[in-house]
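Note to self: the last two entries modelled the partners one at a time, which told us nothing about the interface. This time every component goes in together.
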Amino acid sequence: MTFTHDVVIVGAGGAGLMAALYAREGGADVAVVSKLHPLRSHTGAAQGGIGAALGNEEEDHWLWHAFDTVKGSDYLGDQDAIETMCKDAPRTIIELEHYGVPFSRNQEGLISQRRFGGHTRNFGEAPVRRACHAADRTGHTILHTLYDQCTRKEVKFYDEFQVLDLVRDEDGAVVGCVAYEILTGEVHTFHAKIVCFATGGYGRAFKTTSNAHAGTGDGMAIALRAGLPLEDMEFVQFHPTGLYRLGILITEGARGEGGILRNNDGERFMERYAPTVKDLAPRDMVSQCIYKEIREGRGINGKDYVHLDMTHVGRDVLEHKLPEITEFSRVYLGVDPIKTPIPIAPTAHYAMGGIPTNVDGQVVGGPDRETDVVPGFYAIGECACVSVHGANRLGTNSLLDLVVFGRRAGIAMADEVRASARTRRALPENAERRTRDLLETILARTEGEKAVAVRNDLQETMMTNVSVFRNDETLSTALEDLKALRRRAANVVVGDKGKKFNTDLMDAVEIGFMVDYAEAITAGAANRKESRGAHLREDFADRDDENWLKHTLFYATDGDYRFDYKDVVLGRFEPKERKY
Amino acid sequence: MNLTVKIQRFNPETDDAPHWETYQVEADPMDRALDLLNHIKWHVDGSLTFRKSCAHGICGSDAMQINGENKLACSVLVQDLVGEQGGTITFAPLPASPVIKDLTIDQTGFFEKYRAVKPWLMNTTPPPEKERHQTPEQHAVIEDATKCIMCGACTHSCPSTWADPDYLGPAAMLKAFRYTFDSRDHGTEDRLEVVDSKDGLWKCYTIFNCVEACPKGIDITRWLSALKRKAVTARY
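The predicted structure of the combined assembly is written out below.
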């Protein structure tokens, strides 16, 4: 079937839902297409908070927030976009509160704010309470509240439809997308004036990740296959505190409430690396420091983890401000944080890079932000790269990114639909051909490898070779491995040959996506011969602004790839050495 | 340890009725029940179908019957289900909703009931410049209810649901409580209109299965009782 709408939003997390509300408000006929029921989206797993200079606990200014974000990005973030986001942050949080988000409250009845990594007052003087939160389930409450608002506004949803391809016409304009209806196994085309990807991150390419199983970077891979570039893919955030071996997220908010990282000597090692902000240094730094401690033999009992010590913060704080993570530690590790430090290690967490866009969410298909705009295509949230996070994202800035740019894109898309006097662009012939071929080929295969085998090896090589510490050797190894993995992914056989609810088939498609974006990450890392933010090269240990203060654009064509570059939008904050 | 895993299978394309299949799985006491399902799907039978995503108890995808009780497969460990020597673990779909395939149910009815209670904040005053005030004490009234991940374990554990497909159920009515008792809300009348009905609050017989089943530990029956008191004092 063909479904016709003005705006088709793919993904129903915080960004997608916000865009839907605003596009609808602006009069567009909107449809939200998601491979999961919206309430299962990964926004719901976000814990610690959403950043805004509300100043409810102490003095704060959006400009301080902007500075922290620019510096946190290791000066790769586009400063115009960052200022836009930080300036809009207070208004955005108030809007969320008016929608009904049940933020935690302080004694004055205002939204409670807490400290978070990299957020400071007065341009780096000391940590500042900027993270607005609902206990440690901030993402969950935002997701549910936005979905409640979509319910109120009767937004149209296509639940459990997995988008597998983008449709472009001969002029390169995006005119729709192709989706697999999981319930029935039918392939459908969505004919749209505008398609907006809000498909989230890609953490499942790594063995230890905080990401849900659904985090397979579908939107990014699809954009690549449609001939579009991905920006800054080499910048992968490893969150410092994932539960040891499991990767389950323990919010940075734990350190915001006083939690301390300790090595085998019981030492608060972050004091050495970041004398001013200590455990509240930005995530790239903390993860690198943890790895250093482990490498130098100071992991707990010589093993590959350290301790997050919450034993001094008090039962009250743990059970009221950090109840979810207290439960995770107890359930999954059998460790009661009130009594015992929690074993933690860095976990693959967030994609700083993604589909390149401008500040209104329009996709930019080349180095020129004006002339390279792709008609009919928007991207928002984690799958997009505006870029507000540059080489490293500060905590609480992702939830903020979702709602600020989700709203901006929603408004822009509705404006575009209203302003466009032309008739709807036609779908090309056989828009579904590539998707049907892909699915039929997989289903017809009687011999081959199971998806899990390919996926396990992919996750292993990425975790070993493309994680926190990288060098030419590890990256070359990974690139070689990926070549073989690409061949193997194209030979996956499925056990389920049925039509109804065939998740085995979707697993087989997803491993293909994973190889695509893993290559973008790895090749980008091999290409960028400097260290910046989360991208640490042991063989190029310094930041090199002269040659590398620029965004990477990665294009994939017929089994090969190439790079182009885009300038960074500088601004009032001059790149300096990054010390905390 | 070696486990016997029994799963209620149903393939709508080939089966007339559900049937049990048995598997032998090597497992660790700290493995999640979900890990057993993943192992079987990925290594033994790719057609085993179940919803999953976050794997740590926040998305609500994998609510199902495990050893006869509604739980989230990712929030219960093998050691919670069997002793040190091992044993048998059974998996079945949540009861009382149509089964699509294996452990995957049709949630259409569940979400219709959620929509029926007008689950959004209603405030008739113009929005102020800043956040609306709410004291920590006011917040504490609804905080427990805000933990709900809409997994369906509660509604599908309730005998009133099993007996009456029109019963609104604990999850939907907990949502009604969450908004009605939010100090910023003015929608009491609108929601009581819906829940003050024979298929609403008055079919809650305070059985407490929902409280047992809730993976987030929400005191559901207590909050529904508060909503009942509100209905009585407001409307009778």
